[in-house]
Structures are given as C-alpha cells and as structure tokens.
C-alpha cells in the first residue's frame, strides 16, 4: 500500500519556485514582428510573456493550447499585474484539435448574445466573463461570511417536494416514483422550519420558476441567497440585516476582487449612510406625480415604476438602493404577515438597486390560528400544509427573512443589461443548453 | 424617507449587554420540586436558567414557547457552557397552540426513524440533530475554505438541462416548455467546462438520482461537494488534494465545532500520515483471500467488500480512510481516462471511509479524438455531446476531479447508520415530505 503525499505547490509563486515553470492556457499570441507577446490564461489572472526573437514555437503551439512556459519573471509596469515573463522555453502539454472559432482573447467579441451563449463553454474563457464570475463568487462569499459572523447556520433544503405550496402554477412538475413532485421555487417553507431549530439560518442554492416570461430580467433557474431569522422585533430588523450583509459584500469585493472590479469598471454603490426606505403606496404616488404617470396596477410595481422609484430616491438621497415597504397583502404570499395597522398591506419589502428589484423579504406569520385563517382567506386548504404548520402549532418565534437573486445583484453591479449573461449557463423559456 | 440603521446586537453577549435579557425557545423545564431549571434553546447552544422558588411562570409558558428571560449570568461548572442564568423575570414572546407531541428535549427520543422523519420540522430541534447539522455546516465550510486557499473558483451550474448525458436511466425527467429536461445527477460536464475558464473550480449543490435503491446509504437527492482541477500530472494529484481538503475540514471541526463533536462523541479519523491507497483488483483479491470470500462481481465493489477493504486497510495501517484506485473501465463513465498501461482499468479512484464509499473521482479525457473514440466504444452518439466536446475541440489541459457526498461523509463521521438522518429533509423512493 502506498500513501499519497500532497506535494504540488500550485500558486503562481509555487509553480515558479518548484518547477521553474508556469503553466496555463494560451489566451492569445500578439505578434508585432520584432516583438511577440504570449498572453497566458492563469486561474485568476492573465500573464504577459515576452518571446525572444530567436525562440521558435513548438509545432502544435496555438491559441487554446495548454502550455508550460520556462523563463525569468521581471517587473514591468505596463503588463497586467505589473510583471512579465521573459521566456526561454515553451512546452505544449495538450493541443486543441481545431482553431478557436471566435476571438475569445478580445474583451468584447462582438457576438450576438445568442451566439455567445451557444458557445458558452469557450466564451466563458474571455477576460470579461472571468471577471464577472469571479465577482459572482465574491458576492456569495460575502453573503455567507457576513451571516456566519451574525450567528447564522448554513442549511441545505430539498429542491424536490410534494408541491401544493405557494403559486403552484409557476412550478416545474415531474413524476417521482409514482408520485408527483415539484421543483422548489424558493426554500421559503423549509427555511422557516429551520428557524425553529437554529433561530438564524441561510441557504445558497438553485431555485426554479416555470414562468413564461422571456425578458432580459428573468431566468427559469437561478441562484437564490436566502436567510431567515427569529426573534425579530419588526420587519425592519431584516432590512437592517440585509444592509449589513450588502455592506460586507461590497467591502469584500473591494479588498479581494479589486482587479475584477477594475476590469469591469464597476462603481460599488455607496450605502454608508444607510439605505433609504419608502412605503409602497407613497412610492407609487411619488412616481405618478413626479413623472406624470398614470397608476395602472395599484397592487404591484411595473418594471418601469421600479426604475422611476429608484431614480427618484437617487435624486433625493444620492443612494442607488431603495427599500420599498408595505406591499399589498393581495400580492404577497400566504405566509406574509399583515400590517396590524392596516391589513390591506403587509410587513414586507422589496429592495431596488439601480432601477430593479433584487430582493423580496418580510415578516412571516408565526401564530398558528393567524396562519390558518390567512390560508383560508387566500383559498388554500390548510390540511395540505400540515407539515409546514407543525412549526406554528408547536412554537415559533416572530421571524422573517428574504431572498436575494444572485444574478440580479451581479447584473446591477456590473451594469449588464441581460440577466442571462450573469449566469454561467442560463436557462430560459427557449434555452436548456449548453 | 427614512433610513434603517442596524442596531440589534444579537450575539448572546450582545443580548445580555443591551437588553439585560436573553431570548430563546423553551427547550424544557426540569422541575425537581425545590429547584427548577429552564433549558433555553439558543441558536447554537442550550442555556441553563435557574428559576427561584418565588418566581411564578407566565400563564402561557410551556415547552416550545419563545421567551425573553431577564436575570444574572453566573459561572457554573456543571451547566452546559460553564454558566447559568439566575432568572428574575420571564416574558413569553409567542406561545405554541398545542403541546409538543414528542420529547424533543431528550437526547434520544426513542422514535422510529419513520416517525422522527415525519415530524422533522420539530424533531430537528433536538440537541442531537442540531449538533449533526452544525457539523454538516462545518464540513461544507471547510471544503470551501480549503479550496479557496488552493486557488479554486466557486461556480454554480444548472440543475436543469437537455439530458442525453451519462446514465440517462437514473435521471429524473420533466417537461420544460415543450422540451424534455433532466435534473442533473452531477455537475460533471459543467465543471469540466469551467476548468477551461478558471483551471480550478468547485461547487456545492444538490444532485438528483432517480435510482430505485431503498437502502440506508442512498438518497434520491443529496448535496454533492465537487471540485475539478486542470494541469494535473496524474490522477494522484486529485487524491492528494482531497487529502488536503479533508485534513482542513477535520482541523476546522476541531477548532470551531468542538462542542458538537463532543456532544456526538465523534472521534475524527487520523489522516496525518497520509491516506493509504490500494488498487481495485488488489483490494478485491486481498479481501477474497483474507476473509475467504468469493469474488462475484469482478467489475464493481459490493457494499460488503467496501466494508472489508476498509477493515483490512485499517488493520494494516491504522487509517480509517482508504483510496481504491484503477476501477475497471467497464463501470466508469465515458469521460474517465483509461490507464495507458492497461486500458481495462481507468485512472480513477473511490475513497472509502469507515467501510463506505464517500467519494468518486479520477482523471478525465482531455483529448478530442480520444474522447470521441471512447464515446463510440461506449455506444454513445458523440453528436449529442456537441456542447461538451467544445472544450476538447478548442483546448483543455489534463484535468480531473471528484464528487464527495456530504451526507455520506457526515454519516461516517458521526457513526449514524441511516443516511436519511444526515439530510435535513431526506428524499427517498417513498419520501417526498416533509
């Protein structure tokens, strides 16, 4: 029997130290006649390599090849990362079988979104895509780390269940060993159950919406950042926690993902003065008056209204984020707690960022009778929610939480117009591949 | 417009300092006549509260109530956490509507697994379950943190796709806007694609297996910890990385989850000397000879063989983990790289822990022609894998990776016999709820 001992030192520095070589993918070769630059794609950065005139390239060297490059590293201000490698030898580790069909070495390839998405396995190799999805990682890391610090426990709830839950019309259905299952459109009921066990919980995971929307802001599968917390005194505790989490995320991006922010020219929103909040009905009125716009749907915000509210709040306060509170009961789910001061409204909120909703949250009902009564009012059969109602029956603290759409937040951060570009492999009404 | 400012200090210390009160759920009241102890369930710990004889309880006080307790904290060696609260006042924040139907304050409730799972929304409140799922969090945290340190990027790949991939027979199928979709049984093909972009990637997410197994070690939905890395020199690089990750996880559990390890009497395996590895065919022979056992299936390990191999390796080396390498090509998927020395075997491995497989991994094919040839040999239509084959066509480094079953690892760690108990809300052939 032998034992494997970990030896590889795979940091860029480690690679150089141990093997006198750097490995990476040939991103592109820039040939200026007298000078040739090889741009090598490393895990997180690009490395500029200078090829001396006398160096002849291996026969199978080309864009897309995996190579090992030997040479001396030297400081060079104008190179990415402030250094470049003066190459003495190149070995091809593996070579592609066909030439790259699109110019992935360009920052903007000039492809249609459809083509870019069809070729996603290779177009994700561009500097722009890499920076986007490094930022996506940063958002998720920040979300989790902030909540760990606040005493939350991470959970993993099932994506397959019996269904009959909220908004069954928008759920994907599938056969499950002779039963009917649905795919979770949110971890809502499960995270509430877990508040009974851990008081504060969060989950990062996929959710599925069988909505027929085909818009630049909807995906049929996306990553939801959810938290739920007990012993709140008001739904504003949840908004305060979201503010804290977002501030943490922005700080993390600034400190650990500065190169990516820079590459994408991202300006982080300033929320140091707190995020302003405005009531739903006031926001409706404000926008209607300020922009001479008729109120067509008194119960929900149209996308254009979100944009205008966001703009109005920005003009008044300088903040690019805005909480809109007290959504109408009619449009909120059965678990939303009504405002005791006016039961036409709920103790809930959305968060708008740069003109678009990125979060929905609120206080939930914790009292058993109140929950059963609200289900009945909404025409739901409380018997079907027997499992869920156990928590109300056997004791729950006042609680609430929220769901934050990862792709939406990334989209607003980098100024991308199509949310599809903020998912590695987006799923929409007509797209199931790659 | 108003701004919400975060004020709540919700750590135990913060609660005491700011409000002179601790809030939590009544886990149980132990009444010894002259002394009464209230056990309060806090997010991560239990707090022992002493109720003076003269203190009368509020009318709606009972097990399961959410309460706010005022008093003085004092050191007490025999109490959990080394302290207890001498109570001066109790307020009920919210009360259950029915008495707790099972004794969740007991460490072992004495329920059948079926009943315990049926009542999961409340049985997850036991000290035992809470400790288990805190450890689950620790495993996931450790996995991620170790890989961040090694330069991996976290990814989120779709769970819905076109299908036609490996082992279609074991995939859940569903209608998707007039198309047919399948649920991912692993992020395999997507994480390989992402190696082309980031060289090193990982994902933590749900996977779905439509297998009819109804055993104590199978779930139809589970959480898979996956990583994939490029520029490996051998599949042993992957094993070495897994060893490093596991060592990191165990250290994290020791330092941050000591109370939970202690509560569950977990002995962490010692892998400081490296994890031994043995070839598949040698392991088969060893077990057959050592335990006088006939080899029935030469291409796969039976569960009993896994147990015996694990035992034999432990007896010889003292290590509770063992890599089994070079699985037969016949039983490994189309992307597995065959051993150039003997193409009946693959450059792959499983990791056994305390008698059970917890990981499958190996080197993948990176060469286009080799991959197409192997697909054809396996009777697959390479045309159906057009998206996947883009990476081989346009350039991939030698690479490989693994998938680690979260619930399986937790199960082996805590010595739980039924994997269902290691998922919050397990899904099996007959269970889709709660």
Question: What is this entry, summarized?
Answer:
With 434 residues, chain A is α+β, with helices and mostly antiparallel strands.
Number of domains as seen in the coordinates of chain A: 2
Regions of chain A with pLDDT < 50 over 5+ consecutive residues? Answer: 5-18
Chains forming the largest contact: A-B, 128 and 128 residues
CATH class of the largest domain in chain A: Alpha Beta
Q: State the helical fraction of chain A.
A: 25-40%
CATH level-4 homologous superfamily of the largest domain in chain A: Bira Bifunctional Protein, Domain 2
Quaternary arrangement of the chains shown? homodimer
Give an overview in words:
The structure is a homodimer of 434-residue chains. Chain A has 434 residues and is α+β, with helices and mostly antiparallel strands. The first copy, chain A, folds into 2 domains: 12-100, Nucleic acid-binding proteins (OB fold (Dihydrolipoamide Acetyltransferase, E2P)), CATH 2.40.50; 127-422, Bira Bifunctional Protein, Domain 2 (BirA Bifunctional Protein, domain 2). Chain A is 30% helix and 27% strand. Chain A contains 12 helices and 19 strands. In chain A, the strands form 4 sheets. Chain A has an 8-stranded mixed β-sheet, with helices on both faces. In chain A, strands 2-3-4-6-5 form a 5-stranded mixed β-barrel. In chain A, helix 4 packs across helix 12 (406-414) and helix 8 crosses helix 9 (303-317). The longest helix of chain A has 23 residues, at 127-149. The first copy, chain A, is elongated and about 85 Å long. In chain A, 52% of the residues are buried. Strand 1 of chain A pairs antiparallel with strand 13 of chain B.
């Amino acid at each position: 029997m032998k034992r494997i001992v970990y030896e590889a030192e795979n940091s860029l520095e480690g690679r150089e130290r141990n093997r006198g070589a750097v490995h990476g993918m040939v991103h592109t070769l820039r040939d200026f006649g007298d000078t040739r630059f090889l741009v090598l794609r490393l895990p997180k950065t690009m490395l500029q390599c200078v090829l001396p005139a006398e160096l002849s390239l291996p026969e199978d060297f080309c864009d897309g090849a995996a190579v090992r490059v030997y040479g001396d590293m030297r400081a060079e201000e104008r190179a990415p990362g402030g250094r470049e490698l003066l190459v003495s030898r190149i070995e091809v580790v593996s070579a592609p079988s066909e030439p790259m069909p699109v110019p992935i070495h360009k920052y903007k390839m000039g492809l249609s979104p459809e083509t870019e998405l069809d070729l996603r396995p290779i177009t994700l190799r561009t500097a722009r895509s890499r920076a986007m999805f490094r930022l996506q990682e940063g958002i998720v890391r920040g979300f989790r780390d902030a909540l760990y610090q606040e005493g939350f426990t991470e959970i993993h709830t099932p994506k397959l269940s019996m269904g009959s839950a909220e908004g069954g019309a928008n759920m994907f259905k599938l056969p499950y060993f002779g039963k009917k299952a649905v795919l979770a459109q949110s971890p809502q009921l499960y995270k509430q159950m877990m508040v009974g066990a851990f008081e504060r919980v969060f989950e990062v995971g996929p959710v599925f919406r069988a909505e027929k929307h085909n818009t630049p802001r909807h995906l049929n599968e996306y990553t939801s950042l959810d938290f739920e917390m007990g012993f709140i005194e008001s739904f504003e505790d949840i908004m305060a926690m979201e503010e804290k989490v977002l501030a943490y995320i922005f700080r993390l991006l600034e400190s650990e993902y500065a190169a990516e922010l820079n590459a994408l020219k991202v300006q982080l929103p300033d929320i140091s003065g707190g995020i302003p909040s405005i009531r739903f009905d006031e926001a409706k009125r404000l926008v209607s008056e300020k922009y001479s716009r008729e109120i067509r749907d008194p119960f929900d915000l149209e996308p254009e209204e979100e944009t205008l509210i966001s703009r109005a709040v920005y003009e008044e306060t300088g903040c690019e984020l805005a909480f809109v509170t007290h959504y109408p009961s009619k449009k909120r789910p059965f678990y939303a707690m009504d405002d005791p001061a006016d039961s036409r409204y709920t103790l809930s909120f959305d968060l708008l960022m740069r003109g678009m909703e990125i979060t929905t949250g609120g206080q939930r009902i914790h009292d058993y009778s109140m929950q059963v009564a609200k289900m009945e009012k909404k025409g739901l059969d409380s018997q079907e929610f027997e499992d869920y109602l156990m928590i109300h029956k056997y004791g729950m603290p006042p609680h609430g939480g929220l769901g934050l759409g990862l792709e939406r937040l990334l989209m607003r951060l980098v100024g991308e117009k199509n949310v599809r570009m903020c998912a590695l492999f987006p799923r929409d009404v007509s797209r199931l591949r790659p």
